[in-house]
Amino acid sequence: MMNFFKNLSIQSKIAIIAIPTVAVAIGIGVAVYNKTNYKDIQVVSAAVKNVELKEEVFPEVKEEVITVAVDNSIQESLVEKEEPKEIEFEGIKAKTPKSKVAAPKSKDDPENNKKKGGDAVSQSQAESMFENTGVKSRGIDVSSWQGNINWAQVKASGVDFAIIRAGFRGYGNGSMNEDAYFKQNVANATANGIKVGIYFYSAAVNETEALEEAMWVVEKIVTYRITYPVVYDCEEIGVPGHRTAGVSGAQAASNANTFLSYIKSRGYEPMLYANKSDIGKMGRGNFSCKFWLAHYTTGGQPTDYTGSHQMWQYTSSGSVPGVPGRVDMNVAYFSYGSVAAPMHTHDFSEVVRNSRVEPTCYKEGKETLKCSCGETQDKVLPKTEHKLSSWEVRTEATEEQEGLEFRKCTNSGCNYEETRKIDKLEPEVIDPKDNNNTSEDTNTSKDTDTNTSEDTNTNTNTDTNSSIENDKETDNNVTEP
């Protein structure tokens, strides 16, 4: 074998050595490539899995955000728009609470337990009852318990003002609730010339909850014309079975003053509502604002409450045209000469995300605008202009009938078309002047012919005469023999 190798040429020896070397190198390369490629595949696979995880999560999160943003049915003026800001007032920190619109006569409504009483007084009787007693205005207070009210009839009956419930804190879990008829009542009462005040039925157990209630009320009423006071209504203080069963008179007074102070700081006149029992527990001397006393008497008797009060709710059994069933009736020893302006004017400058529906040339669009206060309003977007084609003839005009031409809108989905008539063709009329010219030409031709004839006759006569004269001359020139 060694002799065989020795006898080979140098080129052969190099070839024999190179072949296995190359083969080994190729094998190593393939192995490295496979190993590297496998790692790449693993990395790519992991990346793909990450993408898949993101795709599974992202649509779900995105859908939740969109749902919250465009859900205009939420009765908190899109309360989910952002986290409520915390404020500090008189050393108390609070956030505006979220709320819902309560169903009329809901079980959690504290007015379920409100005591009723007093004479069945009509509005006409009330007019004479308080004549010459210093009463300045007469009014009612209403909530969802009265249902749909005909405010035009209420105004016609002589009612000057209405204290309307904005909402209440539930006696069960303490949730915030907007009165189902709050907006309807405020809007329709003011539209019919009735001055409006507001009350909130509280179930606060501490100052923080009372401040939350006041902040909530201000947000609700800020765009309305609130002329009469904004009232804090707390009842059943310390009564077992109620949310406020453990609240003392002193704590209730502190809660009330927190609410009333914040209301005053926002530009409204505050007023406290309580019955004789509850004002006794809180102490009339702890309040510097107006006081609305609830005390039902019979037989037209005045209240025996000796403390200062500026408004008196004398019955819950009143009847007023336009109000279904019984209603609370009040007299106020004060009045207001003019209707107050709203504390806030809507700007409606921000478009609610995903609310815009683009208009077309055949259909109006719309978008929902949001005010800085959170209220929303739908805006109608006018139709766009048609994109019309050139006029085309549909029916040619003739001497007997009109023609018709049309043009269409070329925008997709639009069937708009315009048409207009084409006047009949006028029949061809020969100009009378042309007839006169033809007659003149004919006459001229005739004249010419006549003249020519006359000329011919003249010539003929001339020739004839000339011939005769010549004959005569010839005869005369003949020489006689």
Describe the structure.
By secondary structure, the protein is of the alpha/beta class. It has four domains: 2-59; 92-332, Alpha-Beta Barrel (TIM Barrel); 350-381, no CATH class; 387-435, no CATH class. It contains nine helices and 18 strands. The protein has an eight-stranded mixed barrel, surrounded by five helices. A three-stranded antiparallel sheet has the order 13-14-15, with no helix packed on it. Strands 16-17-18 form a three-stranded antiparallel sheet, with no helix packed on it. Helix 4 (151-156) links the parallel strand 4 and strand 5. Helix 7 (249-265) packs across helix 8 (276-282). The longest helix is centred in the N-terminal third of the chain and has 61 residues, at 10-70. It is flat and about 110 Å long. The N and C termini lie far apart (185 Å).
Looking at the structure, the CATH topology of the largest domain is TIM Barrel
Task: Categorize the overall geometry.
Answer: flat
Helix content: 25-40%
Helix count from the secondary structure assignment: 9
Q: So what's the oligomer here? A: single chain
SSE pattern: HHEEEHEHEEHEHEHEHEEEEEEEEEH
Structural domains: how many: 4
Largest sheet: 8 strands, mixed, barrel
**Beta-strand fraction estimate:** 15-25%
Radius of gyration: 53 Å
Distance between the termini: 185 Å
Low-confidence stretches: 35-81, 456-462, 464-481
Structural class: alpha/beta
- Assign the CATH architecture of the largest domain: Alpha-Beta Barrel
Given this structure, which CATH class of the largest domain is correct?
Answer: Alpha Beta
